Amino acid sequence: MSGFCPSIFSDLLQIHIPSFYLHPPKAKCNTRMRLYVVPSKMFRCYATTESLHVGITSNETQVSPIVTDPDKSQSKRLGDDFEMMLEELFSEIKSMISLGNKSDALDLLEANYEAVKEQMVAGRKSIEEAAILDVIALGYMAIEDFKMVDIIMNMLNEIVHDLSDDEPLLDSILTHMGSMNSALGRFENSMLLYKRALTILEKNHGSNSKSLVMPLLGMGKALVSAGRAIKAIDIYHRTISILESNMGAESKELVVPLNALGNLLIEEGKVKDAENTFMRIIAIHTNLYGKDDDRVAMAMCSLANAKCAKGDAEGAIDLYTNALRMMEHSENMNLDDIVLEKTRVELAELLHVVGRAKEGRKLLEECLSITKKYKGEEDPSYITHLTNLATSYSRSKNYVESERLLRSTLNIMKKTVDPDDPSTTFPMLQLAVTLYNLKQDKEAEQLAVKVLHIREKAFGNSSLPVGEALECLISIQKRVGRDDGEILEMLKRNLRIQEREFGDESEQVVETLKKIVFYMEKMEIKDQKYPFQRRLSLLRNKFKQQLQY
């Protein structure tokens, strides 16, 4: 599911609340009710080997990346001192970032980058330079300087292309490169790097070695991102099989590939298989930590997603409710824990779906109260919960309360972000819809136009968020009697956006085609109407045939 889901208008006279969420769950029931989930801001280390660390040596700023090879004798060829330098460098960079010393980390990375660059200009392009660049790239990735990561990836490609597969540490460097390429959206490159790493590891350790697990997991993730789900499922099954044969069927290491597999099975519509996968995770955690452990609770939330995907909303609610109770009584979780917060929001959403809005709002109010107490009203998560609560009241047609909450949201955001920050457009567009429902069309139109302009600047004229703003503005302007020709042009523009984002035969495209034909008939431009009318008729006939089957 996309982060931006434009509402589908059932007819030209009806307008719906925009549906947004920040971190969508893996699977949800078929509903237009969507709530925000506060994103967690976590330190991201893309190293895929537990032993990879980085550090700084003595008083000089030196760089050196290290990834411990499963065969320790290989890394001896590079020397333990070199390996220690790498570990120290990464540890230093990681420590700087975690303490908020981003500028110091950048200075350290830049100094080491320039040192390696000079060595490469002088003709040194060995495994040592590759290992150092590997650590530098991981550092830049952690501070989200993707431009530098891109530059370093090109340098690394130049080096590793000419290295033989028996070089020490090469398999780990290739695995890291695969991870970083995947993060940059270069999924085909990522898969090629993982494939070479796997070839090296299989040659050195066999096809059933647990050293294959990390590159296999990376390969699976890249395949999913590239849309090759069937192959990814095979990869996850192989990973699970390797771990089972090496560590046993109840090993905690199985949880990561099982979780990835379960989520993918949901996306592929294999819900029963997904349920079995998550039930196995629950069994593993229960066996290792006891039935009341918070890890069991989190696995229950994943199982709830699977039940929701097959339409068992009540079963999902029961699981979420029990999981929430377990987390709240856990000694490992504070009341404001991000996982607890996410669980409350997802349960609230489900309760709204089955018509238990009052119970759902109680959870949202609890989120709001906890966030206010522990983080303050200007924390981004407080804004999220205010918006969620406003959404809830809008769904219950209590537009007055929704308006109050949304205006409070925007007033707080005025103090924390720039007026043209795209984050303001989420509550702003929702306020426009709320005012529309309160028959306050003039202000609703002004807000919708402002949202459109901010999003055009932030996301591009043909982006999905712009399409959503257009759809809202069209409905408002129709009711206030704006020029039919201008509305028709906006509809055509929105159609082009929907065709690119959802496909030429999507439900969104059909709905917009209906509106275009309606306006062309109203304006009596029959010569232009024919191709749109014909396309709409063909799509309707196709959908009828699909329903018959």
From TrEMBL:
Gene3D superfamilies: Tetratricopeptide repeat domain (1.25.40.10)
Segment forming the signal sequence: none
GO cellular component, one term: chloroplast
Keyword terms, alphabetized: Repeat, TPR repeat
GO biological process: chloroplast organization
Keyword Ribonucleoprotein: no
PANTHER family (alphabetical): NEPHROCYSTIN-3, TETRATRICOPEPTIDE REPEAT PROTEIN (AFU_ORTHOLOGUE AFUA_6G03870)
Name of the molecule in the record: MalT-like TPR region domain-containing protein
Source organism per UniProt: Lactuca saligna
